[in-house]
Amino acid sequence: MRNIEIIGTGSYTPKHMVTNEMLETIMDTSNEWIVSRTGIESRHISTGEETSDLATKAALEALKDGNLQAEEIDLVIVATCSPDSLVPSVACKVQKNIGAHNAMAFDINAACSGFVFGLDIARGFMASGRFKTALIIGAEVLSKIINWEDRSTSILFGDGAGAAVLKESTVDGLSYINCKSEGEKWEALTCGSVALENPFIMDTIPVNSKVTMEGKEIYKFAVKVMESEFNRILNEAKLNKEDIDFIVPHQANIRMIEAFSRKIGVSLEKFIINLNRFGNTSGASIPIALDEGNKSGAFKKGNKIVVIGFGGGLTFGSALITWNKDL
Ligand code: UT7
Question: Each residue of 47-60: pLDDT tens digit?
Answer without folding.
Answer: 999 999 999 999 99
